[in-house]
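Design a sequence for this backbone.
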């Protein structure tokens, strides 16, 4: 497994990953330029993208967006990994660690992100590693094109 910064050419593969993972992408066009630099991907030896995380570098706040992992790679290679223990599989974990390191190097002092109410495993992982719940918010989105 290789973890690397996505390129614009990876956009369609990330879009396919969303569909395979049954994760809503709200109909965005994954073929448009601009994917590179904002996403980190996990790629198998045969070139299949099986995980992606959105990482937006800024100072003082960075942002972690969606963490999407192919269903066959969730909780893989993790000792006793399950939703009940709050442990992520190695793909999601490696993506998160890589994103945190990249954001720190880019000057982010704090990383923010949204965790859905139905993504309890990720919330538990964040809390175990020192993240604070800043309260409940309504996430808003507006299509620009």
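Sequence:
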């Amino acid at each position: 497994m290789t973890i690397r910064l996505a390129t614009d050419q990876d956009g369609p593969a990330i879009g396919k990953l969303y569909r395979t993972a049954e994760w809503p992408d709200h109909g965005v066009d994954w073929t448009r330029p601009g994917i590179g630099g904002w996403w980190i991907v996990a790629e198998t030896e045969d070139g299949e993208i099986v995980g992606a995380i959105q990482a937006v570098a800024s100072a003082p706040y960075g942002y972690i967006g969606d963490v999407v992992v192919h269903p066959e790679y969730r909780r893989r290679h993790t000792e006793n990994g399950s939703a009940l223990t709050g442990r992520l599989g190695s793909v999601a974990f490696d993506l998160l660690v890589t994103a945190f390191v990249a954001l720190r190097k880019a000057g982010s002092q704090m990383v923010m992100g949204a965790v859905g109410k139905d993504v309890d495993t990720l919330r538990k992982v964040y809390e175990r590693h020192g993240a604070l719940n800043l309260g409940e918010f309504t996430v808003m989105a507006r299509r620009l094109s």
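The first helix runs from residue 11 to 20.
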